[in-house]
Write a structure and sequence with these properties.
158 residues, mainly beta, six-stranded mixed β-sheet, three-stranded antiparallel β-sheet, 45% strand, globular
């Protein structure tokens, strides 16, 4: 069930992203009561120099964040619960994050959610940001490699 009325977003409201993200690798580990998502984004600057990296993520509990395998401390980024901003990012790099999500509590029918006995994904338009950090763009073509690690015991609701 969707919360609230949908908000219209127009194509002319988008700005070109500061970074292209041609490749995303994700490892999704289903556990009892939570799911861990580790993502590696390949980044290449396409926008103006000095522009920060801005990614979107909703209902994500951030556990780890690194650029080129060097963990970032809390002073090097800002995550306000919906937007991740990293002011200083190299021209080309990899961004690795690990987030905790709870598909059993996700009732928006976006991202990764549980419907009765099965796990489902709905990523088109804005659902991907409920699985991992990503940018808002009207077209985001990329190579996506996902690894799903099943749990050893059937999941219980969170």
């Amino acid at each position: 069930m969707r919360d609230g009325a949908p908000k219209t977003i127009y194509r002319q409201d988008y700005e070109p992203p500061a970074y292209a993200i041609p490749t995303v690798e994700m490892a999704i580990s289903l556990n009892n009561g939570y799911t861990l998502v580790e993502s590696t984004l390949v980044l290449q600057r396409t926008g103006k120099l000095g522009a920060p990296l801005v990614l979107h993520g909703e209902s994500l509990s951030l556990e780890y964040l690194a650029i080129d395998d060097v963990e970032l401390n809390a002073e090097q980024f800002l995550y306000d619960g919906s937007t991740l901003t990293i002011p200083e990012v190299p021209e080309a790099c990899t961004l690795t994050s690990r987030v905790r999500i709870c598909p059993e509590d996700n009732t928006s029918l976006e991202g990764l959610y549980r419907s009765r006995t099965m796990y489902c994904t709905q990523c088109e338009a804005e659902g991907f940001r409920k699985i991992t950090f990503f940018r808002i763009a009207p077209t985001s073509f990329l190579s996506l490699l996902s690894l799903l690690k099943p749990m050893s015991q059937p999941a219980r609701y969170c």
